[in-house]
Write a structure and sequence with these properties.
The chain is α/β, with parallel strands linked by helices. The protein has two domains: 152 residues, Rossmann fold (3-Layer(aba) Sandwich), CATH 3.40.50.720; 106 residues, 2-Layer Sandwich (Dihydrodipicolinate Reductase, domain 2). Helix content is 37%, strand content 23%. The chain has ten helices and twelve strands. The protein starts with 5 loop residues before the first strand and ends with a helix. The site of nicotinamide-adenine-dinucleotide has 25 residues, from helix 1.
Length: 271
């Protein structure tokens, strides 16, 4: 869809992802920064959003309230924290601002509330905006369906030591996709870490394990282990830029869509 220059508002503007989105928007050339929002009390409030992102003056000061700037934008990005994200989606719905939400760790009730708000605005929620990871979901569903119950499934993710939630939203989604393909209820078969005399592994288990360290942008390995062989499907993010580029691609796709809740599968035509 041809939409020309897109006016965008970035929530979490002084964060790691917010900063890269502002930087890559400038590089892309088809976005204009219409607003930059940070949490009340953040030391970056009042500073120029482009300078805070290390890409020179943008002429947009970082403010503390989305409501005021939402009216100036066509799309908002939210890479903040779970409670902030749901509050920001609410403010976007009031202002009629389409939203691309990458924040992970939202509770099921918050996601239900977000889906309700998605009746009023185009709302894209994706715990992982990387094109590769979203293609991997499709590969995992195919592999699980073909391999069936004879292969044990274990998921291992590793991220930087700043990450607050575990397992990653991406690992959780991978587990969900695999459970769906195998006709299992993840609530019953998901095993999150193991310690002590846990006994023999049950065939239906889907193991999910979270490692944390250093500045690792994100890796997900899914192991399908059978008797005498195993398949490992691995995704490695080299930097945060692949998530930020995916978010920009999502925003280009989202602007002008009817209200509704979308994900990266819609953007990439994987459904
Ligand atoms: P970060 O801590 O570097 O940045 C978050 C920023 O949001 C901080 O600057 C914080 O002050 C700000 N913030 C908090 N409350 C706010 C509010 N009410 N309004 C505006 N800003 C507020 O974290 P990060 O590494 O940038 O990650 C942010 C979120 O995005 C996390 O949930 C992370 O898991 C998720 N993430 C998602 C993807 C994806 O592809 N979907 C990729 C990377 C990170």
């Amino acid at each position: 869809m041809e939409v020309g220059v897109i006016r965008a508002v970035v929530c979490g503007a002084a964060g790691r992802m917010g900063g890269r989105i502002i930087a890559l928007m400038k590089e892309a050339g088809d976005f204009e920064l219409a607003g930059a929002v940070e949490r009340p009390g953040h030391p970056a409030l009042g500073k120029d959003a482009g300078e805070a992102a290390g890409v020179g003056k943008a002429g947009v000061p970082i403010t503390a309230v989305l409501g005021q700037v939402a009216m100036d934008g066509q799309v908002g990005f939210d890479f903040t924290a779970p409670e902030a994200a749901i509050a920001n989606i609410g403010k976007a719905a009031e202002a009629g601002l389409a939203m691309v939400v990458g924040t992970t760790g939202m509770k099921p009730e918050a996601l239900d509330r977000a889906r309700e708000l998605g009746r009023r605005i185009p709302l894209l929620i994706a715990p992982n905006m990387s094109v590769g990871v979203n293609v991997m979901y499709t590969l995992l569903a195919q592999a699980a369906a073909k391999l069936g119950d004879d292969y044990d499934v274990e998921i291992c993710e590793i991220h930087h030591h700043f990450k607050a939630d575990a397992p990653s939203g991406t690992a959780a989604k991978m587990a969900q996709v695999i459970a769906g393909a195998l006709g299992r209820d993840l609530e019953r078969v998901g095993v999150y870490g193991r310690k002590g005399m846990v006994g023999e592994r049950k065939p239906q288990e889907i193991g999910v394990h979270a490692l944390r360290g250093g500045d690792i942008a994100g890796e997900h390995t899914v192991i399908f282990a059978g008797m005498g062989e195993r398949i490992e499907i691995v995704h490695r993010a080299h930097s945060r830029d692949n998530f930020a580029r995916g978010a920009l691609r999502a925003a280009r796709w989202l602007v002008g869509r009817p209200p509704g809740v979308y994900d990266m599968g819609d953007v990439l035509g994987l459904k």
